[in-house]
Design goal:
This is Shufflon protein D. By secondary structure, this protein is mainly β. The chain has one domain. It is built from no helices and six strands. A three-stranded antiparallel β-sheet has the order 1-6-3, with no helix packed on it. A three-stranded antiparallel β-sheet has the order 2-5-4, with no helix packed on it. Strand 4 and strand 5 form a beta hairpin. The N and C termini lie close together (11 Å).
Length: 79
């Protein structure tokens, strides 16, 4: 909850690069994707996807890459 004159809490940034497919970001009030990049596609059946989800009190950054592409997924979180 925002409080008048309180500003925002600590801001943390995270980066997930090929070949890693998941990272536990820990506990935060709010997280959002801040950058998504995928390269190396050969046809329309190739894809890459980044997602953020909450598991219990922890945020998870996950990438679903094809084997032929490289990717980068970034997230920013606020406490």
């Amino acid at each position: 909850m925002w409080k008048k004159g309180g500003g925002i809490g600590k801001v943390s940034s995270y980066q997930l690069n090929f070949p890693y497919s998941q990272s536990n970001l820990g506990q935060h009030t709010f997280c959002a994707l801040s950058h998504v990049r995928a390269t190396g596609f050969h046809n329309s059946n190739d894809y890459s996807e980044c997602s953020l989800s909450k598991s219990g009190s922890n945020w998870q950054l996950t990438a679903y890459p094809p084997s032929i592409a490289s990717y980068r997924c970034d997230a920013v979180c606020i406490d």
